[in-house]
Inverse folding.
């Protein structure tokens, strides 16, 4: 079985907490050691390019700003050939305080990986969210799981569990 590379960036620890939970849920189903959990801080393109199955977790700050470590990784990201790779995204955002920028980082990075040949997996329905606009939204779906720990933290566990089951199927690991 191919190992999953789960890369995340965090400032407050919320994205790290969700990343660790997603790793736990995946390893409950796939076995210990099936996921490498890697903070994007000081990573290079070669660190990410070695995985064929990727999960990328990132918050969106304020008016659509990227988390600092992901912002610094953009140049590296654009140089990775994602051909033959499956990439799933999850992001954290505030759908009320920043309703016009909810989880925008996913949309930006989703465009990069698609342009470079990736197959996007893990699309997630927008139903149940109350935002105005998101670069991560395509029709009635987000390009990945969106988490709002500020306003809907009580839904985080259920959403993560459901999404992990979905990812396992889309990664052909079931």
């Amino acid at each position: 079985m191919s190992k999953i590379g789960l890369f995340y960036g965090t400032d407050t620890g919320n994205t790290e907490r969700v990343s660790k939970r997603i790793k736990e849920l995946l390893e409950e189903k796939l076995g210990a050691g099936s996921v490498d959990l890697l903070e994007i801080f000081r990573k290079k393109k070669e660190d990410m390019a070695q995985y064929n199955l990727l999960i990328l977790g990132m918050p969106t700050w304020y008016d659509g700003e990227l988390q600092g470590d992901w912002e610094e990784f953009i140049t590296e990201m654009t140089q990775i050939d994602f051909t033959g790779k499956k990439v799933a995204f999850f992001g954290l955002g505030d759908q009320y305080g920043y309703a016009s920028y909810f989880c925008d980082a996913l949309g930006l990075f989703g465009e990069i990986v698609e342009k470079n040949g990736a197959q996007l997996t893990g699309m997630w329905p927008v139903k149940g969210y109350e935002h105005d606009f998101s670069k991560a939204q395509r029709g009635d779906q987000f390009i990945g799981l969106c988490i709002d720990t500020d306003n809907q933290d009580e839904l985080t566990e259920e959403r993560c569990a459901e999404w992990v089951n979905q990812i396992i199927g889309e990664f052909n690991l079931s």
Residues 25 and 161 are 7 Å apart (CA to CA).
